[in-house]
Amino acid sequence: MAVDLHGIAERLFVGVMAPLVLGGPLQPGHAIGARASLALGPEQDRRPANDRAPADPNLADRVERARIARIRLLAPVDRADPPSAAEWALSAALHDLLQAANPMFDAPLRRSSAARILALAAAAIDAVPAPASVRDALSRHSWFARVLEVARTDTTVSWWLGSRTFLGEDPPARLRAWPELRRVRVNATRRTLLELSPLAFDAEPFADAVARFLSQTPLTDVATCTRSTPAFAWADSALALVATRAGRTLALRALARLPTAEVHSALGRAVRELFVHRRASVSGPALAILAERAIAEARGHLSAATEGAATSTRPDATFARALGALVATEQLRSQPGWLERDRRGLLSSLDPLVRSEAAREGLALLQTHLTSRGGTVRA
Amino acid sequence: MLERIALHQTRLHTPGLGLDAKGVALGAKGLVLLPSIDRLVALLAVYTRERSLEDLMPSLAMNVVQSRLGTREITLQFAAESSDRMDRVAETARLVGGFTLTGTSRHFVQYRDAGAPFGYDATQLLATDAAIALYHERFSQTYELERSIDLRRLLLRLMPQEDPSAGAEPGVRLVVAEQGLGPALVHYLVRSHVDGEVCVAEWAPESAFDDAPVRRWIFRLPEVPVRMRPLLQTTPGITSFVPAGPGVAVETGYRHPVELRACPVFDTAGLVLVRGRGGEPWEIAKLPPMGSLTAFARVELRAKGADAAVARSVAQPEMVRVPLRVTPSTRPWRNVTATWIDNEQVPLLRRLAYALPQPTLAGARLAITTRGVFLRLAAGIEAIPLGTFFVEVHPNLYLPAGHEVLPAVAPEVLARALGAPPSKVLFVGSDANAVAVDESAFVPLETSLLAAPSWEVTTTAEVDAALAETPIDLRVTSIGLLPLRGVEPPPTTEEP
């Protein structure tokens, strides 16, 4: 039976992609499956890209304007490209992720279906190639920047004879009628994506699928590093993004919009994990991020004064700041192009961090890493 | 027959005659020989004008004596006691034409005079059995006692003399009213608020034709109004008396020849009323007990109705209250510290705020109510010439300037009557209606001026709307009967 990709794309755009950008009710429908997800892209369909244009041009315009607004928070871009094949695939995979979290699957003979959909969605995510360029990453970010803001409203209606809970549905008006006479109480609770319950499967594979999804949109991954679940970790795609000057700039701008202390804490934990998991060889871009944030903090571009007290109680944040100051000091000493006055000023500002206990820990980790590669670090 | 007693003479011929310490011949008694009864009265009148008869009364004896020639004369005997008393009596007797003698039993010799300072002594005594033998330089005479004269009867037989001035002075009055006039006089006096006492006395029938005693009302009035005196003196059947001594009174407008107050012959328990115009005195042996005039006032009994209206307690006694009025006053304005600005004048207040000095803005406190804006400024509200000025007459109680309340109660009373709690500020308008403003509603004027709350809220809402993002709400839809229909794994690399 031939699959109506156009219809799926239309349903996907209206039900998931547009609400993901504009906000409002996000309504995943029948599961799409990995094969169809990967086939939604125009290249795979071998039809012109504009064939995937939504039937509602106004909705498409609104989505494009919202995406541009999102992009302009990070970069001066005036045009947003139509969704690429990878973005269609990621959107479809996200659609299936959300559908797998449908509470209706939490019933006998249905739980396996949810697990199956989740597994295929994860497979589809894995099948999507990493962004090939910073522009590609920025485009994906414009679609999925708010993916962690997806939340379901669970409403509990209680009255004098009983109560009912509606998961992601509006309670019928009849249950809310005569509120004073029937003593009706309505309690609405918003549950974010990783707080959804009940699930037809374990929460861990679902969180893992969400983490995989975030790794496919590295700028979003970095821009949401302060999230609690799934905890931020330097994925290869994110490291690849910040390895470039433009990608690192976008990442720094995205991080600048987040609470400084929490960013320090998230980045410090992620970098420490790189060293612990012996991935220090790829930690250069992460260290570069920390160094640039240290310099920005020393120059007053970050609100270090107000965040200092908060970071002092977070070992990961202190570690990130000390490690960043250590790398920044090395860069200031080795790289030309700095005015001598600025260089001395920055070095003196960074000196307390460099002499801190956390800096010694970071220095030890770096020396261990460099020793293994035959290098050294000036103390 | 008489010889003058010389100085240092010690021997006297008259029995019972001796010499006192001054050498004056003096017997145990004194005797005054008076030619007639009127001279006796004159003697009593003159003597009592200066002194009382009280010291003479125990030994006083008045007699009508008859000489051997048949002439009747009056003798007045008394205890001599001393030459001083005898000197006083002798002088008085000399004034009224009497002779003063002294002796002990029946022989009386002439008392001393200017010609014989030590008195006289009778060298030859008359041999007689007469009651008294008198030895005078002009005569020697024996007398027999005819009858005695009772002083009290004598005084009562004396007719008072008309004296218009008698009774003119204020004081106690005794009023005697005939039986028929008594009750009317009682009511008259009661109506006139004249205090006094009254009793009813009885006299024996005046003639055999009267079968009933004569009853008269006797009033004792401590003070009689001047306007009543003619009425009490001229009304037939009513006689007014002026007390002339203990137990005796003389009719108003008459004066007794003898000073009755000096004659202690009237019983204080009784009463003797000496009448003028020849009327016999009314004598009451024992005065009946007197009652207050008010006790004799006319009483009237109700014809119908209950004996007594019994008061019953009610739930809440009706209080005497009058509505509060606020009226214009000419008193100077003081302590004008508040103003009541109508809602129509609030725009003017806003415009005026630009011209107000900083101290005024800082000190003024403002409360915005539905009835207008209330402004309070302790330093004086004149700096804000808007609205109706109010004067703080009591803490948190304001009255319109130039007005006062009626009844003119004290501000404390007014505040207590209004009964507002301390947290309320009361403004009593010129229509006497009070408006209470919560004390906490007053805020500094300078903080209220820059409010414009509606604008700020609207602007903020617009900014929020521009930046806010609609939350993404995941909705749950039906999974269908075949949720895995069409859900296929990704193509493998071998697939085309």
Q: Kindly give the count of domains of chain A.
A: 3
The number of domains of chain B: 3
Q: What percentage of the residues of chain B does DSSP assign to strands (E)?
A: 25-35%
- Low-confidence region ranges of chain B: 453-463
Protein chain pair with the most extensive contact, residues per chain: A-B, 49 and 21 residues
* Number of H- or I-type helical stretches of chain B: 10
**Tally of helical runs of chain A:** 17
Overall pLDDT score of chain B: 84
Described by the principal axes of the CA atoms, the overall outline of chain A is globular
What's the Cα radius of gyration of chain B?
56 Å
Q: For the residues shown, what is the average pLDDT of chain A?
A: 86
Q: What is the straight-line distance between the termini of chain B?
A: 208 Å
Count of distinct strands of chain B: 32
Query: What does the largest sheet of chain A look like?
Result: 3 strands, antiparallel
Radius of gyration of chain A: 24 Å
H-E order of chain A = HEHHHHHHEEEHHHHHHHHHH
The helix fraction of chain B, in percent, is: 10-25%
The class by helix and strand makeup of chain A works out as: mainly alpha
Kindly name the structural category of chain B.
Answer: alpha+beta
Write up what this structure looks like.
The complex is a heterodimer of chains A (379) and B (496). Chain A is mainly alpha-helical and 379 residues long. Chain A contains 17 helices and four strands. In chain A, a hairpin with a 4-residue loop joins strand 2 and strand 3. The radius of gyration of chain A is 24 Å and the shape is globular. Chain B has 496 residues and is of the alpha+beta class. In chain B, helix 1 crosses helix 2. Chain B folds into three domains: 2-149, no CATH class; 159-205 and 212-296, no CATH class; 325-447, no CATH class. In chain B, strands 20-19-17-16-13-15-14-21 form an eight-stranded mixed β-sheet. The longest helix of chain B is centred in the last third of the chain and has 15 residues, at 453-467. Strand 1 of chain A pairs parallel with strand 32 of chain B, so a sheet runs across the interface.
